[in-house]
Amino acid sequence: MSNSNQVLLGIENVYRTYVDDDDNKVEALFDVSLEVEKGEFVTIIGSSGCGKTTLLRLIAGLDKPLSGELTIDGKLITGTDPGRGYVFQQGGLFPWLSVEKNIATGLKARGVYKQEKDLVQEYIDLIGLQGFEKAFPHQISGGMAQRVAIARALINRPAALLLDEPMGALDSFTRADLQDKLLELWAHDKTTMILVTHDIDEAIYLSDRIVIMTPRPGRISEILTVPFPRPRHRGGVEFLTMRGTILEKLHLATALPQPEYKI
Amino acid sequence: MSRTRLPNKYANAKFLLRTPFALAGFAVAILVNRVFPQIANVEIIDYEFPGGAVLNMNQAYQLVLLALILLYLIAGVYAWFDPDRRVRYLNRVPFRFAMGLALAAWDITGTKLLMLPQPFFPGPAKIIESFLMEGDYILQNTLYSLRLFAVGFLVGVVVGVGTGILIGWFARVYYWVFPVLKLTGVIPAVAWMPFALTLFPTPFSAASFLIVICAWFPVAFATARGITSTPKSHFEVARTLGAKTSYLVFHVAIPHAMPNIFTGISTANGFAFTTLVMAEMMGQPGGLGYYINASKVWSAYYKVFASILVMAILFSLIMWAIGAIQGRVLRWQRGLIHE
Ligand SMILES: Nc1ncnc2c1ncn2[C@@H]1O[C@H](COP(=O)(O)OP(=O)(O)O)[C@@H](O)[C@H]1O
Ligand SMILES: [Mg+2]
User: What is the structure's pLDDT at A257?
Assistant: First the structure.
């Protein structure tokens, strides 16, 4: 994807601070900068609390930075936009809507359902949920629910899809399955993917680049390119070597203090 | 005979053996009414109907019992084809059997022997006689009640849902209106009766008003609670999908509040029945409550019971209808898909 070399998302010196219950400042994001190209698959990895969700919410426009800029196609991000799909950690399907109606939400919300309703079946077929159109969310498995959440976001044909640990709650078989499905959808729509995970294998298996974040303050410590082509073999030498590298970096990143940021 | 088929066969036999008992009780009641000698001195009047039919109270009572037998027979045939219904039907067999026997015992003590204190506890046939005497008038009063209920309750629910949405959605409305609602909501609606009677042009509109406010409060409460308890994540999901404010209200907050709204509606339903009957007893030109009052004046307690019987049937039907609507709207909460 790097041959197109066109920047889609620009993140420049972004800071975001929260005040917690005890009135302490939490520096969730500290001087974060990143560029993501069109069609790229980028994974953000890091221990819990390092600001991954915060960053993703800023990109989605669900939240605003304290300072710094986020741009999409050169335009400042000021709020949510169907051009940036978001898959929440727990899927967040509407329990009162059937699978097909959940998927159709974006079309209806944008008022284009009449013209584009064929897309609903297309995406149901794509995620392999034929026969479950009328089922309600509590009647399907966790893996199916996440597929529905992904299809629901993709039906708007977003330029970027933001996924916040979408497979965190799934067993490893379902997870592997969904990873392949995600690659398939990526190939189908050429959507730029920004995935948050804490699973190193998942990051290597899926991404073009892996962004490693570290906590307190939340910042990007390293960006790695996965140098070998897909489909990737999870037991391959390159794969395992890369995994070792990332583990080491993550471990170092969290174990050692960061003197340059201690004031 | 294989073991696996045994339970099913057994179930068929059990159903066939037990179902007749649902009907047998009422058959006994008919038999008792026909063959038990009329010992006490009770006047049996023949009522003539257009078309030449002549009925006395015992015959009318027997017809009612026969209708019950037919009803439960049809229900039994219907249940035969559905395992769930079968279980429910079998469950009710003992109760229906006992009901028939109770009616027979009541008939003997209330009409045949006149052992119960009169005129406060008439026999079942005597109560049915009310419908022979003035069925038209009872129907007229029933329709009056039904109309009053329909107008008051529907307006109350609509206004309640509307207010609830405003309170739940707008923080300012919540701040200013919710405390008022909390304070006035605990007042029984009939307390406003004198006020309503002077302010409204007709007794009907005054009573409608009382039913409106008694339905309004619980529905508004529950709706507001349902709206405010909508998880923020639902709104965020919708916003990332391109939803504007109106979509968030009508397609996220309100569907989320639906279970609460129906809880409010059931509460309101109970209040509305009470308010309806009380309002009718306190100054309406018609209705089942009015009929009770009018009959009491003449010590016609059998008519009071007739009115109560109609209420039981009418209110049960209304509750059943609301339950059916609720089941349809909230079908997403059920464990199964019903197509
Ligand atoms: N709404 C909030 N209020 C206060 N603190 C928050 C809030 N959201 C996140 N934080 C804090 O910011 C830090 C980063 O959180 P988050 O972005 O959720 O991390 P991650 O997704 O990487 O686990 C954490 O220390 C968290 O406690
Ligand atoms: Mg997170």
Answer: 53
Q: N- to C-terminal Cα distance for chain A? A: 40
Q: Each residue of A57-100: pLDDT tens digit?
A: 999 999 999 999 999 999 999 999 999 999 998 768 999 999 99
Q: Which residues of B147-168 are buried (b: 16+ CB within 10 A; e: fewer)?
A: ebbebbbebbbebbbebbbbbb
Helix (H, G, I), strand (E, B) or coil at A123: helix
Q: Nearest by CB to B332, from A82, A86, A136: name it.
A: A136
Find tokens 């009328």 and name the residue: A134
- Non-local CB neighbours of B83 within 8 Å, separated by 6+ positions: none
Q: Is the pLDDT of residue A199 over 60?
A: yes
Distances (CA, A) of A181 to A152, A206, B329: 14, 11, 34
Minimal Cβ distance to A62: which of B236, B247, B339: B236
A28 lines ligand 1 (CB under 6 A): yes
pLDDT < 70 regions, chain B: 1-10, 335-339
Question: If you ran DSSP here, which 8-state letter would residue A61 be given?
Answer: T
pLDDT at A254: 59
pLDDT of residue A263: 46
| Residues found in chain B | 339
Q: What class is the A4-255 domain?
A: alpha beta
Mean pLDDT of A221-229: 92
Residue A146: CB partners within 8 Å, gap ≥ 6?
A87, A91, A166, A167, A170, A178
Task: Report which residue type is found at B266.
Answer: S
pLDDT at B242: 95
Side-chain half-sphere CA neighbours of A254 within 13 A: 14
Distance CA B224, CA A167 (A): 35
Q: Which residues, in sequence order, are bridge partners of residue A210?
A: A43, A224
pLDDT at B132: 94
CA atoms of B186 and B174, how far apart (whole Å): 18
Q: What is the pLDDT of residue B51?
A: 85
Of the two residues A187 and B156, the one the predictor is more confident about is B156
Tens digits of residue pLDDT in B134-153:
999 999 999 999 999 999 99
- Mutation target vs A (from B234, B235, B240; most A CBs, 10 A cutoff): B240
Ligand 1, atom nearest to A47 Cα: 22
The domain ranges of chain A are 4-255
Q: What are phi and psi of B41, to 5 degrees?
A: -85, 95
Asked whether this complex has an ipTM greater than 0.85, the answer is yes
CATH number of B134-333: 1.10.3720.10
How many whole angstroms separate alpha carbon A147 and alpha carbon A162? 14
Rounded to the nearest 5 degrees, what angle is found at the Cα of A28, between the Cα atoms of A27 and A34? 115
At residue A253 the predicted structure's pLDDT band, cuts being 50, 70 and 90, is low
Distance of CA A234 to the CA centre of its chain: 21
Backbone angles phi, psi at A20, to 5 degrees: -85, -175
Phi, then psi, of A240 in degrees rounded to 5:
-70, -35
Helix B124-169 crosses helix B83-107 at what angle (to 10 degrees)?
Answer: 130
Question: Which of A14, A17, A20, when mutated, tests ligand 1's pocket best, judged by the most ligand atoms within 8 Å of its CB?
Answer: A20
Q: Output the pTM of the full model.
A: 0.86
Question: Helix count (H) and strand count (E) of chain A?
Answer: 8, 10
**Domain segments of chain B: what residues?**
2-116, 134-333
